[in-house]
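Translate sequence into structure tokens.
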Amino acid sequence: MQKIITMAHGAGGRQTSELIDAVFRQYFENEYLTSDDAAVVPGHEGRMAMTTDGFIISPQFFPGGNIGKLSVCGTVNDLTCMGARPAYLTCSFIIEEGYPVDKLETIAKSMAETAKETGAVLVAGDTKVAGKGQAGGCFITTTGVGFIEDGVSTSGKFAEPGDAIIVTGDIGRHGASILLARDDYGIDADIISDCAPLWNDIHELLMAVPETHVIRDATRGGLGTVLYEIAHESGNGIYLNRESVPVSPAVKGVCSMLGLEPMYLACEGTMAVIVPDKDKEKALEVLHRGKHTGKAAIIGHVTEENEGRVVMESEIGALTYLPEPGNELLPRIC
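Result follows.
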């Protein structure tokens, strides 16, 4: 096997087969993985969720992960938000000519390990090779299928006045880690992306609180954007206690230096969860036992007032509207 990707690896011949066997099949091997035109997998009675997403992160390796881990986390977490157990994933790679095979192997290994944590399997894929300068290294598109747990139904429109709002971890670490990994500002801070697959932790929540109304992944645009989406979908307002929102000291420091708002920094392993007020303590207890949700916190509630708006109580007790996101949010992560 050659040490770098060549155009021949995307031609569909012997070199393509060698790449698939040496890199992808080595890590993705399972009973459903196929070399045929499509994977054949067991069906399921009941509701199914399906999602797809493209990943073009720069840099492709960052503290806490890489584009491969990110691609699986993003897709698995989107299924999780619908209460769907991740089952099958497919992936499409666009790889630039000259890309190191050892980096590609690291990416594939990360994808396999992350999928395994959730019980999902990678069953099919596609590989294309672009000429030098055409693809920025490696792009991945991942599609996922999951099966929705019985009795579970989640949507932003289901948020009701009085519901408690929980964030499953501290916010802004992914966006801050990507910003620093680009080394555009010469800032040295110990910030590791929160990139993580959350199905197992959220599944425990759904078993304990099946009436969970909303689960939303706070990725691009961060927690602030997600809360505004929920306010618009439900036709309600959001009250937020700023002091209750967990932000690491390192992220606070970077935001202070660069004039950024952590509420709008991307997360890749943190979700906003909305549950009936009567269930908020039970939900918090369950999340605190999770592998990736130990820093979960109650940060506010849904209200009939201020329809479509997010009102935030500051550290000194003042009430203000959280600015609604617009234009391009920084840092641009994808």
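Note: The helical segments are 14-28, 67-81, 101-118, 173-181, 199-208, 222-234, 249-258, 280-288.
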